[in-house]
Amino acid sequence: MTVTAVLGAGKIGEALLAGLLQGGRGPEELLFTERHPERAAELTERYGIAGVEVGEAAKRADVLVVAVKPQDIEPVLAELAPLVGPGSLVVSLCAGLPTSLYERRLPDGVPVVRVMPNTPMVVGEAMSAVSPGRYATPEHVALVKEMLATVGEVVEVPESQQDAVTALSGSGPAYFFFLVEAMIDAGILLGLPRAVAEKLIIQSAVGAAKMLAETSEHPVILREAVTSPAGTTINAIRELEKHGVRAALLAAIEAARDRSVELGKAHE
Ligand SMILES: NC(=O)c1ccc[n+]([C@@H]2O[C@H](COP(=O)([O-])OP(=O)(O)OC[C@H]3O[C@@H](n4cnc5c(N)ncnc54)[C@H](OP(=O)(O)O)[C@@H]3O)[C@@H](O)[C@H]2O)c1
């Protein structure tokens, strides 16, 4: 039995715990730490998982998953340093934080694997990218990949690509939610009841996502199939291009990448 402890069970930490339970792990294989007792009690009540102190988590768990905000990492590293050794495995889900930060602050030889997940983890549809640090072996990477495969898809990338991954799939769900929100507004503008507009757009998003995932067609081909000559869609596409939506996405994702780089530098 591999015991996994999530340090900082906020949005992404809770999504991981929920996803692991849904993927077949038992509550006795999972632990978490939280700052607020009320939040810890709420999570234990909801999932039957024990909330513990960091010391107990380090003693009982084989895998320690760090899921605090990058800005909160320093006290966590200070707490972990006297408790971990080369036999532990530290998995970081923190945007922007390099494995070298953990390696500098923890005892020599502690293996670290950096992961960028995303929130669809809560429904078993996460996209996670993993990168091993200096002391992580292929077996450590395989263990982390296996854990994440129970809550979605996993790819391995060189750590130098993690800032780009963070901007693309880490933040990615937010871009889709933003688009859906704007499209529902458009439905309201056209006089549709909100509930109808929501259903039309959410099902269109689910259908489009399934077509992308299940056919091997390029998105351009799928879009062209909806864009008939002198039809309605091409009129909409002209407006999207006129308003620079493609350029806005390029700039937005580049800005997210820059912020990820900045978060990492803050701890140098
Ligand atoms: N949300 C996403 O879409 C997403 C996607 C990919 C990666 N991530 C990464 O996941 C990490 C967590 O993000 P999040 O959105 O889940 O943030 P969050 O909801 O704020 O969760 C962090 C949790 O950790 C707790 N915490 C902070 N310091 C702690 C400590 N010393 N001991 C125990 N618990 C502590 C926080 O408690 P308080 O409430 O007291 O602060 C909070 O409950 C971040 O590093 C982020 O970069 C997030």
TrEMBL record:
Q: List keywords of the entry alphabetically.
A: Amino-acid biosynthesis, Cytoplasm, NADP, Oxidoreductase, Proline biosynthesis
> Which residues belong to any copy of the Pyrroline-5-carboxylate reductase catalytic N-terminal domain?
5-96
- Write down the SUPFAM superfamilies for this protein, in alphabetical order: 6-phosphogluconate dehydrogenase C-terminal domain-like (SSF48179), NAD(P)-binding Rossmann-fold domains (SSF51735)
Q: EC number(s) for this protein? A: 1.5.1.2
Q: Where does the record say this protein resides?
A: Cytoplasm
Q: Where is the signal peptide?
A: none
Q: Name one Pfam family in it.
A: F420_oxidored
Q: Which residues form the Pyrroline-5-carboxylate reductase dimerisation domain?
A: 159-263
Q: Name one GO molecular function term.
A: pyrroline-5-carboxylate reductase activity
Chain segments annotated as transmembrane: none
Q: Which reaction does it catalyse?
A: L-proline + NADP(+) = (S)-1-pyrroline-5-carboxylate + NADPH + 2 H(+); L-proline + NAD(+) = (S)-1-pyrroline-5-carboxylate + NADH + 2 H(+)
Please give the Gene3D superfamilies that the UniProt record associates with this protein. NAD(P)-binding Rossmann-like Domain, ProC C-terminal domain-like
Q: Which pathway is this protein assigned to?
A: Amino-acid biosynthesis; L-proline biosynthesis; L-proline from L-glutamate 5-semialdehyde: step 1/1
Q: What family, per the record?
A: Belongs to the pyrroline-5-carboxylate reductase family.
Job description of the protein: Catalyzes the reduction of 1-pyrroline-5-carboxylate (PCA) to L-proline.
This chain belongs to which protein, by name? Answer: Pyrroline-5-carboxylate reductase
Write the lineage as a comma-separated list. Bacteria, Bacillati, Actinomycetota, Actinomycetes, Pseudonocardiales
